[in-house]
Amino acid sequence: MLRQGFLTVRKGLTADDVRRAADALAVRALGLPELAQARTVAAYVSVGNEPGTLTLLDALHARGVRVLLPVLMEDNDLDWGAYEGEGSLVRVQHGGKMALLEPAGERLDPAAVERADAVLLPGLAVDTRGMRLGRGGGSYDRVLARLERAGADPALVVLLYDTEVVDRVPEEPHDRPVHAVVTPSGVRRFRTARP
């Protein structure tokens, strides 16, 4: 029910709303020390009225950052491929699920995310503790568990609209908090940025 509420609000956004928010998100995110110093960033390509990521992906790629993008596997886990610009993306329809833009090149392995300095996570909301509400498919819960098992500690950043930072979201025992949320109007930290 909570997820549906956030999705309904997003559906009401205009193309201009989404574009303006994407531009502001890119500016805010690019100013984060975690991204300014990153050599490898695992990210995602936004779909529909999700907070837009392509402007940010292009800016990171232009900086010489290695950008990894997810490839959804049949079991909802994620493999990864390198982003080489918007022309390197292909639209992939996953059964009854939404179509996703995924990297067309070589698949790197689900463990490739362990080498990222920062991981940009999609979500529907984040609360004041840094707990993220995802879409419910579990793909990023698997990514976060993989990072934890490997002892990897990249900066975990979720990109949202301003109205999606809320007091509390439901929490499962396997959920892990993010380190920061970036919205068009600013950044909120749940853990101090590492030097």
Describe the structure.
The protein has helices at residues 2-11, 15-30, 33-36, 54-62, 139-150, and strands spanning 40-42, 66-72, 78-82, 89-93, 99-103, 118-121, 125-127, 132-133, 155-159, 165-166, 180-183, 186-189. It has 5 helices and 12 strands. A hairpin with a 2-residue loop joins strand 11 (180-183) and strand 12. The strands form 3 sheets. Strands 3-2-1-6-9-11-12 form a 7-stranded mixed β-sheet. The radius of gyration is 15 Å and the shape is globular. The protein is α/β, with parallel strands linked by helices and 195 residues long. The mean pLDDT is 90. It has a single domain (1-189), classed as NagB/RpiA/CoA transferase-like (Rossmann fold), CATH 3.40.50. Helices cover 26% and strands 25% of the residues.
